[in-house]
């Protein structure tokens, strides 16, 4: 029973990080999370330590752990790896998608568009992570998927920054729509190109934010 509870807590925390529920630098207090989920601190602590081992959280003395603060150098390193791995997963995954998967992708695209119109950050990020990870999980390569999800755990909290400028919100869903159109045609390379464009565009945008915050010069978009 204790192992099942720890696993459930771990999966809940993992999904929260993947979907951007937590902010970079946010402290996660073991006792607060235990109170929220109505459990003792021990299984919460064990679940959090698993995420520390995966690089998704940083340990702090005694009482809490922290979502790592993103730096421009670290984000660029992760982005370069993501572009290669996620592109490969898309190309391998498209021919393997089932009818149920296609329905999930279509629904996520529609819900993301509604979230953009409402400027609902959390709803957008939740549907965004479901769209991407549904697509990647179809690749049939568990090793590749583990690598992708490990990187998403590190960058998920930083995706909250996507709504900091009004002009960006109008393009948030364009690449997903292009990817979905390619998927519906059975065009794996076209879907890969759309996802890689998505990563490149928004990756550059977030790199620009980090450059500004560190006092650097904004890159050209």
UniProtKB/TrEMBL annotation:
Listed InterPro entries: GntR_C (IPR011711), TF_FadR/GntR_C (IPR008920), Tscrpt_reg_HTH_GntR (IPR000524), WH-like_DNA-bd_sf (IPR036388), WH_DNA-bd_sf (IPR036390)
Keywords: DNA-binding, Transcription, Transcription regulation
Coiled coil regions, renumbered to chain: none
Domain HTH gntR-type: 3-70
A Gene Ontology molecular function term of the record: DNA-binding transcription factor activity
Keyword DNA-binding: yes
PROSITE patterns for this protein: HTH_GNTR
The protein, known as: Transcriptional regulator
